[in-house]
Write a structure and sequence with these properties.
Length: about 250
């Protein structure tokens, strides 16, 4: 079966917030799109729910935490992201629920984005490989938290010191979802996406994947996605529209 064409994502916005579970989640597919948007003058902020401290087998969480925070900050700079926040929740065992929604809603209220981007939170990546539990929890909670953020009666204890509800998020995008409907041309910025993944050096080394080639890996996703848009490279997103009638 031929994959369906992807519709271009809406690029008529100024501020996006990326909320993902781990350092490296953006870089495994979406970073080239982030570079495209920052090149257009848009502001993109990263929020990491954990610090990825359980991600390196040969390094204790206390050692890995600082290394991974450093790599993520570096990785963001490569694609024009200056602000990276870490919520410090425990890597690997994030639970979907009200505390997670509360933490993400506060970030949304602080940054007042129009677009919120998270990772695929479907059960799989499209094959039989199950998605990871933290990604599912964070994606679902992010979708809920953008609505919580707009309601002054939810998590109202946050509304002090000038912090206001923010109901301006129009869409939530889940990167790499097997149900992706939309895409963006990343041909011009593909190389920076690769460089951004390579910034996670300690993590990639720790994976112990022999002969892992970040460019080849990313091409394996971006070329088939690009062909669905008639371009060389693209990134895909499942788009959730939050306003009625859109
Ligand atoms: Zn992850």
């Amino acid at each position: 079966m031929k994959p369906l064409p992807l519709e271009p994502v809406d690029e008529n916005w100024d501020r996006a917030l990326v909320v993902v579970a781990h350092p490296d989640d953006v870089e495994f597919g979406a970073a080239a799109a982030i570079a495209r948007w920052t090149d257009q003058g848009k502001t993109v902020v990263y929020c990491m729910v954990t610090s990825g401290e359980a991600g390196i087998d040969g390094m204790t969480p206390d050692e890995a935490r600082d290394v991974r925070i450093g790599e993520q900050i570096e990785s963001g700079k490569v694609v024009g992201v200056e602000a990276v926040e870490f919520l410090g929740l425990p890597d690997g065992i994030i639970e979907y629920g009200v505390p997670l929604r509360r933490a993400i809603a506060e970030v949304v209220r602080n940054h007042r984005p129009e677009i919120v981007i998270t990772n695929n939170f479907r059960e799989t990546w499209g094959g039989s490989m199950p998605n990871q539990s933290d990604h599912i929890a964070v994606g679902k909670a992010t979708l809920d938290a953008v609505r919580d953020a707009g309601n002054r009666w939810i998590f109202s204890e946050q509304l002090t010191g000038g912090l206001e509800p923010w109901g301006g998020v129009t869409q939530v995008w889940a990167a790499g979802s097997p149900d992706g409907t939309h895409g963006v041309d990343t041909t011009e910025t593909f190389d920076r996406g690769v460089e951004s993944l390579m910034a996670h050096k300690a993590y990639i080394d720790g994976l112990g994947w022999e002969n892992f080639d970040p460019a080849e890996f990313l091409e394996g996703m971006s070329r088939p996605t690009g062909s669905r848009m008639g371009v060389t490279h693209a990134a895909s997103f499942e788009v959730f529209k939050l306003a009625w009638g859109e």
